[in-house]
# Entry
Amino acid sequence: MITRSELRRLLPHRYPILLVDRVLEVVPGERITTVKAVTCNEPWYADLGDEVTDEELAYPSTLLVESWAQSAGVLATLTVGGTEALHDKVMLLGSVSGVDFHGPVLPGDVVEHRIGLHRVMGETMIFQGESRVAGRTVVTVTNAVMAFRPADQLRPEKAGVIGEGIPA
# Structure
């Protein structure tokens, strides 16, 4: 099983945007199941007043997809052999499509992400899956594309120059 410290080595994210709390099951090259516990102490709830509705307390859908994608990133990293195999690579989320939201996620909920690796093409992978709360599906993802690319090809040759070399 993957420990919390190993999880931190597999993902570059840190508080407040590390959105995977635990890995329940993983079969590299096939599937992963992770959990994210939603609490009202997260920064996105900080500016809410005392009189809030459940709708205002709903976990942001973008963060729910981000948590799902981070879980897919763990599976992707383990599928290619772990962080040692990626010392000179960067993981990129290329696209997410066919995302359907089926209900709110509220503070106190534990979200279980279930992700399957659908296809591998070199260093590009396609994932699909769902997220559930207490057996109820809250989001489905038809396709998410992730790719590993050489880090040196993604860094600008001159630091601080954005867009250099991009055709007009």
